């Protein structure tokens, strides 16, 4: 009876990890000989593990990653010019702490989105806030926010996140308000957050596709300064999969 009251009190105090751990450990004969200090210490660790897991779930949910991807699953066997040294450095959180950007360019189907999402997953699992957006959805969201009065709030949200991922950048040239909003985001994030840009458009063509020369200079400067540049090349992994497996493109797994 007393044990159940303890569980009830712990849950009421929102110590859910402790409550679960208490029930499991009190019924474990191997824990009966533990000192009070050791038993409480284990319960404290149970609570920390529970909170860490809950935080990770929130980070991954809020990240809205397009793909379930992991750095350890990236395929280096396909000849696409993926820089292993750069990826090794990106497997450490120092680039996030230093607010360094990453640009990933290459033809369609080469695995840009997978790498971007793998980096996002890595960041979230290390406790960083992450937000993934496709460029068309990003600009659509900002356009709608102008109409409902939440534009500044939307910009502030993108400025505050520790890692912002913009995928499918420059599928079409930017309009005047799109490049101005993009500059605002990058200006707010400059030296305060890391940004990943994935694009089919080669970096050399970014300037003319962004448009206005002055704004293009400012945007490219903030994106490219001290950034990791992953320039992928080669045939589509989707095409290779279809050729080797004889499968339908709809059945192709997440590209790595």
What does this structure look like?
With 256 residues, this protein is of the alpha/beta class. The chain has 2 domains: 2-61, no CATH class; 65-251, 3-Layer(aba) Sandwich (Rossmann fold). Helix content is 54%, strand content 9%. It is built from 12 helices and 5 strands. The chain has helices spanning 2-12, 16-26, 36-63, 84-90, 94-97, 112-125, 135-148, 151-160, 176-189, 206-210, 213-224, 237-245; strands at 102-105, 130-134, 163-167, 194-199, 228-231. The chain is elongated. Mean pLDDT is 88; it is low at 242-253.
Summarize the structure.
This protein has helices at 2-12, 16-26, 36-63, 84-90, 94-97, 112-125, 135-148, 151-160, 176-189, 206-210, 213-224, 237-245; strands at 102-105, 130-134, 163-167, 194-199, 228-231.
- Could you state the CATH homologous superfamily of the largest domain? P-loop containing nucleotide triphosphate hydrolases
- Approximate helicity band: 40-55%
Radius of gyration: 23 Å
| Morphology call | elongated
Mean pLDDT: 88
Write the H/E string, N to C.
HHHHHEHEHHEHEHHEH
Under CATH at level 1, the class of the largest domain stands as: Alpha Beta
CATH architecture designation of the largest domain: 3-Layer(aba) Sandwich
Percentage of residues in strands: 5-15%
What topology does this entry show?
Elements: H1 2-12, H2 16-26, H3 36-63, H4 84-90, H5 94-97, E1 102-105, H6 112-125, E2 130-134, H7 135-148, H8 151-160, E3 163-167, H9 176-189, E4 194-199, H10 206-210, H11 213-224, E5 228-231, H12 237-245
Parallel strand pairs: 1-4, 1-5, 2-3, 3-4
Helix pairs in contact: 1-2, 2-3, 3-6, 7-8, 8-9, 9-11
């Amino acid at each position: 009876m007393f044990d159940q009251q303890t569980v009830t009190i712990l849950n009421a105090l929102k110590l859910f990890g402790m409550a679960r751990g208490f029930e499991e450990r009190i019924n474990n004969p191997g824990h009966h000989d533990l000192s009070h200090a050791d038993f409480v210490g284990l319960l404290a660790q149970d609570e920390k593990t529970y909170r860490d897991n809950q935080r990770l779930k929130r980070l991954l949910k809020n990240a809205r990653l397009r793909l379930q991807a992991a750095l350890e699953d990236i395929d280096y066997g396909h000849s696409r010019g993926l820089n292993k040294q750069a990826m090794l450095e990106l497997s450490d959180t120092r680039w996030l702490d230093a607010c360094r950007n990453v640009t990933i360019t290459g033809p369609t189907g080469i695995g840009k989105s997978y790498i971007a999402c793998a980096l996002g997953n890595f960041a979230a699992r290390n406790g960083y806030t992450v937000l993934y957006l496709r460029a068309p959805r990003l600009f659509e969201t900002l356009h709608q926010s102008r109409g409902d009065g939440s534009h500044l709030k939307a910009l502030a949200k993108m400025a505050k996140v520790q890692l912002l991922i913009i995928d499918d950048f420059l599928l079409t040239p930017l309009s005047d308000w799109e490049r101005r909003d993009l500059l605002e985001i990058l200006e707010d994030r400059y030296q305060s957050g890391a940004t990943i840009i994935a694009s089919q458009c080669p970096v050399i063509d970014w300037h003319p596709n962004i448009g206005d020369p002055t704004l293009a200079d400012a945007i490219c400067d903030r994106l490219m300064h001290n950034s990791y540049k992953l320039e992928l090349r080669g045939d589509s992994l989707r095409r290779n999969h279809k050729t080797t497996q004889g499968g339908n493109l709809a059945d192709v797994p997440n590209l790595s």
